[in-house]
Amino acid sequence: MQSSTPIYFATSQNLDDVLSALPKEGQAWAKANRFEAKKGQLCIIPNASGAIEATLFGLGDENKSKDSTAFEAGALPIKLPHGHYHYANDEKVWNDDERHLATLAWYLGSYRFDRYKENSQPMPELNWPEGVDKDLVLLQAKGSNLARDLINIPASDMGPDELEAVTRGLADTHGASLSVTKGEALLEENFPMIHAVGRASTREPRLLDMVWGDEAHPKVTLVGKGVCFDTGGLDIKPGSSMLLMKKDMGGAANVLGLASMIMAAKVPVRLRVLIPAVENSIAGNAFRPGDVLQSHKGITVEIGNTDAEGRLVLGDALSLADLEKPDLLIDMATLTGAARVALGPDLPPFYSDDDELVGEIASAAKAQIDPLWHMPLWDGYDANLSSDIADVNHISSGGFAGSITAALFLRRFVGEAKSWVHFDIYGWAPKAMPARPKGGEAQAIRALFSVISQRYKD
Ligand code: BES
Ligand code: MN
Ligand code: ZN
User: Fold this and answer.
1) Which of 228, 307, 409 to mutate to test the pocket of ligand 1 (most atoms within 8 A of CB)?
2) Nearest in space to 210 (alpha carbons), one of 171, 158, 164, 174
3) Where residue 120 falls among pLDDT bands split at 50, 70, 90?
């Protein structure tokens, strides 16, 4: 095995034990540098010749928080000098599940988006911690990093064509099939809302439909909002709100990341991924506020604001997904600013009428350190979607509870699926956190991978 530098994880509780494992000089160095095991505190200890002897990393006071500290380890790769390292006391600090997460955190924390800018600084490397499932860690990291990459790539290089190409690549890798309904064919095949939202772009709107696995297995369908850029349409966004809208395909990016995990782990499900891939642009043929659209489901939809485009493309995709009565129907979307007002960027709300599923997701979110918060499909607000001239208005009158009413609108397109759950994600880390570099972010998919693996294990 490659010689490597030990990393000691120190808490207020174990600090004395950790220090006593070091040579006298090392203990003196740590004290002189005021190492107190504060959360995120790093102390690099030299030997007599000035090389690195050991590193200490603080996890804080174990009594102060009930949350696992395993993801703190994800701060290390960007802090440590290049070289080989190993976790020296992880078995004493964490249980097996947490050691898995602390290893995954290292890989998630090593992510850099370097497509347009060479990084000269090589990342430090971790010797594999004993007993941690390497395949599982790597497939989870790969799925999450795929989602991050797709979000980070600007809209100029990640339009509907490119999103289709990525999906095709994933399908080829795992032996899935992909069918694409594009441009005018969307009207022939009855996806009027996907067509309406995407038709003003020079890059043709389309619906991607990927299918994988044994037809006899339970049907799990993932639907992801693939708005490759959201100008707002004729209800154009102000510059500051438009700036980040390359990430409006974050739902699609995340369902592709989740699909890659499910397929790599060969979970015994019949998986389907539906991605309406469009650009919400402005041109003479753009859909307008006040228009009434037909929908795949057959209900008419009055357009209140062309910037509420996500729920329209999802409505058609959900209504198609619903036809085959899947066992589990999941959609993910960067759907509303209101979700951020309610819970901020790091805690996506999710919605479902299936209480058992809600419980599974909530506990997986905690166990996987993939924060999620259950919000209600509040029936009382459904009436706010009524329209004088169509079956439904796609935004609510009043403007309150925007994330809930968006979820209620989506519910109008689902009815046959055994369970349905909707995630209103942000898909972006506005600032770096341990294991979560700034930029495009995977949300909810590690929790969902855990739920799906548990539900459908053979
Ligand atoms: N993609 C946006 C939502 C969004 C904005 C997500 C900022 C994350 C960050 C979506 O298409 C949108 O514009 N929603 C509108 C809906 C409104 C017009 C009813 C919103 O939330 O303001
Ligand atoms: Mn919008
Ligand atoms: Zn949008």
Assistant:
1) 307
2) 171
3) confident
Model pTM above 0.90: yes
Amino acid at 283: A
Residue 369 identity: I
State the amino acid at position 235 in one-letter form: D
User: Ligand 1 pocket: which of 229, 282, 336, 403 to mutate (most atoms <8 Å of CB)?
Assistant: 336
In tens, the pLDDT along 269-307 reads: 999 999 999 999 999 999 999 999 999 999 999 999 999
Paired residues of 333 in beta bridges: 424
CA dihedral of residues 241, 246, 250, 256 (deg, nearest 10) = 170
What strands, in cross-sheet order, belong to the sheet with 301-302?
A: 292-293, 301-302, 392-393
Query: What are 87's two structure tokens?
Result: 């976790």
CB within 6 Å of ligand 1 — which residues?
230, 248, 305, 307-310, 334-338, 395, 402, 426
pLDDT band at 2 (very low <50, low <70, confident <90, very high): low
Q: How many Cα atoms within 13 Å fall on the side-chain side of residue 390?
A: 18
What pairing do the DSSP bridges indicate for beta strands 270-280 and 219-224? parallel
| Ordered structural domains, the chain, with CATH | 5-110 (3.40.220.10), 142-455 (3.40.630.10)
